[in-house]
Amino acid sequence: MQYPQPIAKLIEGFTRLPGIGPKTASRLAFHVIDMKEDDVLEFAKALVHAKRDLTYCSQCHNITDTDPCYICNDSHRDKSVVCVLQESRDVIAVEKMREYTGLYHVLHGAISPMDGIGPEDIKVPELIKRLQDDTIQEVIIATNPTIEGEATAMYMSRLIKPTGIKVTRLAHGLPVGGDLEYADEVTLSKAIEGRREL
Q: From first to last of its 198 residues, what are the pLDDT tens digits of the chain?
């Protein structure tokens, strides 16, 4: 049985979202149909406003509704440290910790030769230009612990180290509350490698 055209288009729209398969898209579409019209209009407005009103910060490239973003504008932030992240959502993860007080630089991806993504396709050139400012003393590379993230970290490290700026990498290893028996070999290897004295 085919769905009526408006439902089919709604389902198709939901399947374009990451992690949404046909069954979930169908459930979401029927949920939207059952919603009150005012709620649907509010939801639609929120989508349109997010698309129209958000931009990327000209300094750190994080998603924002003001340029520069509130983090780059915050005079209490430590301007000598920049944490390099792959995606804007990673900024939220670090900020939730409430420990880091430096600035950010969002790459919007990682180097992946297999996918045809090189350093010039992400915000690496913008980072190198930004590092010409003498106030930056340390770059924390916080790319994901994947092949692409590691390749990106190594590439940036080789570019930055000759400038005399300190380059650090987030530690990788065992999660708090995790059991050794469930850790994979790579995680255990990184945990041993990154061990510290008590």
A: 688 999 999 999 999 999 999 999 999 999 999 999 999 999 999 999 999 999 999 999 999 999 999 999 999 999 999 999 999 999 999 999 889 999 999 999 999 989 999 999 999 999 999 998 889 999 999 999 888 999 999 999 999 999 999 999 988 777 777 777 777 777 778 777 777 776
Q: What is the rounded distance in angstroms from the CA atom of residue 67 to the CA atom of residue 58?
A: 7
Query: And the tokens for 13?
Result: 């729209």
Q: Tell me, which fold does domain 5-53 have in CATH? A: Helicase, Ruva Protein; domain 3 (1.10.8)
Please give the CATH topology (third level) of the domain spanning 77-166. Answer: Dna Topoisomerase Vi A Subunit; Chain: A, domain 2 (3.40.1360)
Write down the residue that tokens 């010039």 correspond to. Answer: 120
pTM above 0.90, yes or no: no
Q: What are the residue boundaries of the structural domains of the chain, listed by start?
A: 5-53, 77-166
